[in-house]
Amino acid sequence: MEEQRERIRELTELLNRASRAYYQEAREIMSNLEYDRLYDELQALEQETGIIMAGSPTQRVGYEVVSELPKETHEAPMLSLDKTKNVENLVDWLGDQEGLLSWKMDGLTVVLTYRDGELFKAVTRGNGEIGEVITPNARTFANIPLRIPYQGELILRGEAVIRYSDFTRINREIPEVENQYKNPRNLCSGSVRQLNAAVTAARNVRFYAFALVRAEGVDFANSREQQFVWLKGQGFEVVYYERVNAQTLPAVVVNFAGMVGESDLPSDGLVLLMDDIAYGESLGRTAKFPRNAIAFKWADEQQETTLSYIEWSPSRTGLINPVAVFEPVQLEGTTVSRASVHNLSILEALALGEGDRISVYKANMIIPQIAENLTRSGAAAPPDRCPVCGGLTKVVENGDVKALYCTNPLCQAKQIGSYALFVSRDGLNVDGLSEATLEKLISAGLLHSVADIFRLKDHREEIVSMEGLGDKSFEKLTAAIEKARDTTLPRLLYGLGIAGIGAANARVLAKAFSYDLPRLMDAPAEELTAVDGIGPVLAEGITSYFAEEEHRKLLADLLGILRLEAPEETPEKPSFAGKTFVITGALTAFANRKEAQARIEAVGGKVAGSVSKNTDYLINNDPLSGSSKNRKARELGIPILSEEDFLAMLEE
Fold this sequence. Notes:
The chain is of the alpha+beta class. It has 6 domains: about 1-50, Helix Hairpins; about 70-295, D-amino Acid Aminotransferase, Chain A, domain 1, CATH 3.30.470.30; about 305-405, CATH 2.40.50.140; about 410-485, DNA polymerase, domain 1 (Orthogonal Bundle); about 490-565, 5' to 3' exonuclease, C-terminal subdomain (DNA polymerase, domain 1); about 580-650, Rossmann fold. Helix content is about 35%, strand content about 20%. The protein has 24 helices and 24 strands. The strands form 6 sheets. Strands 12, 13, 14, 15, 16, 17 and 18 form a 7-stranded antiparallel beta sheet that branches. A 5-stranded mixed beta sheet has the order 2-11-10-3-9. Strands 5-4-7-8 form a 4-stranded antiparallel beta sheet. The longest helix has 23 residues, at about 1-25. The radius of gyration is 30 Å and the shape is globular.
């Protein structure tokens, strides 16, 4: 018994630490599968011994409230759901009733209250007893109605989530890999609980209703489905569901499984809810679970395989992540051969080494993970040299997590941002060469300067063997690179990443020096400051850049590869010379604002981002709109032009 008591204490502390890391600190110290396994072990020990420690995760609901947001006690405790991984258990639970099977969405539960047809209050689930008031933030959710037709008091619950596509977009805008969000759930939690609602608004949080708590005076014919239908009529998006009975339930679960990989909304299982409201409520509740609903978690398909080796993958911040590469296996219908190990702490906990027999699975049927190391050789040791640059590495401990870093500030992997800028749309415009692909190429030692991009055709064998690439990708990539060899000096100047030289200044400089790069490279600061828009600070940055021998060698290399074309000159129009334009609203005559900007600059004008006393024209196809730029332009007496007006000016 003493051994069991000690194990209960150990599991309680370990699981609580993992929960704090995941829910409050946006990091992982164990996999979802490992957490579930330990949780089930703790629950079984508690039932066997009758001992439950204070703070046991089997007794808690939700996260602890730790922010500075206002707090509020819920009218009734918000319980979590009992769960199963067995479809037969779902069928037995449903019995002869009919139910609604829906996604169990992976975000943050929020309670909304409407009064007199308007959103009155929004509160997070919190710890189940006390939540945080986030009303200003909820008003910025992308799909939430601020006013509804119903005028009585309405209380409903739903999940605030961030879609995978938005999660990827937001992470792409964060250059430091260690500061990127680990999953949409962490990002959503941080976004919803912001003290600044403007941050929430920028994250494109969405709300999906999954339970109606109260709607005075409305008859729902004793049906949860009728509540969902009514909520849709009020303007809410409800969680996707299908009506089921014991006979149809297994097939519908299979249908949901097939949709997991295609869904843009994060989920971690399914929820089965009794449709009969009165019957469901008559079942009552336990201390932690209501009995009118049950959660279904995917029984992760696991396969045994052999670990081939640990690949050490450097990132732009110097963080070197361990990646397990193993003999390919089939999981959830796809071939898998790699899984992130996340950090040194997890690598050590799994005791991984080449040749170990490991069990792998896909977390939530999507992300490859190692479930268990069956042989635990512990032979994998972190390298003392960076695999990209050969610089010394060091182990950094942050709390209870250890990570490996490259100490060389000039490591090519740390220059990923400069490579991405070089191939960007305004740079050399190499279509399809993403940051993720660049990181793979750099980690493989194929890129030591941006000029090496044009030599990738010589590394076919290495590239086609990389995950996510292959023969077809290689052909597309090399074709795009070959196309990018025909370029212009403004594109090259922008792509070099010279401090302060954006696309507009690159065009101005190239034109001022007659598209003669050697002349520009040798230009003194006085000649540069004579160019419109180039002040002493920018001039100093340009001369300093071209003074470095390393940069001159790179440019000599590039000039031997690229075919620089001088663009056809568009004669400047006196009516546009020195005039400043601001562009706002949707465009129809131009593909985008950059195209319109290029047209303005080609005839001698400038483009600014905001309206001021120095603005000469505002271009907006909706001159009567109440936008802030329109209001400002009217206050300052600045003409507002439609695209048609602007094009007519060009023809004059």
